[in-house]
Amino acid sequence: MDDSDVTIIIPTLNEQGNIGKVIHDLKQLHPNIKVYVTDDGSSDQTQAIARRAGAIIIDRTQRRVKGITASVVEVLQQVNTKKIVVMDGDLQHPPEKVQEMIRALDDADLVIAVREKVIGPWGFFRKLESKIATGLVKVRLRKNIQDPLSGFFGFRKELVLNLNLQKFEMCCFKILFNLLKNIDLPKTRFTYVYYYFDIRKNGKSKLGAKQVYHFIRNLLT
Q1: Closest CA to 157 of 73, 79, 70
Q2: How far apart are the first and last CA of the chain?
Q3: Which of 47, 64, 129, 205 gives 20 to 30 Å between its CA and that of 39?
């Protein structure tokens, strides 16, 4: 499989305990793949570790608008490969699933990695919040899309070529939701891959009140 026409985009913030292994595993599996780490101003060694591991670094420390969506959109304007995969840098998204996603994009415009099972403890309220948020998004989109809030997905570059990316809620941490809101859903060829969602090994989640606020804004617009 030719992986030279594939770009991986990894938005990061203080992931020094994870990012090196993520990039190492990706490079071992796909030596010719392009890996962009778009960093929102980490105060640790995330950027240095990612650079040593072979990633292209986009340093967003001085950017006024922060967030996963803004980070990914900035890189999209530089990428010219046919296929793009977005994933987290915290080891919750298994690099070994990327190959399956790349192959799926031969016959689809968008592939979503669906969390089939959560490995390790996930609190009752976290599960409830996720279920409610997913249900609201499906109502907003008027389409029963599996795991529409997944942070692990891939698409063909042509899917976003004619989109007005400025219409995205840039501070929203759910970039896939932003994408689904703006593409022509009936004409988009969807497919899915399934994986076990691992618990975070190092560092801490960035989810907080600000992220919830911007998600609600995205939901209502």
Answers
A1: 79
A2: 40
A3: 129
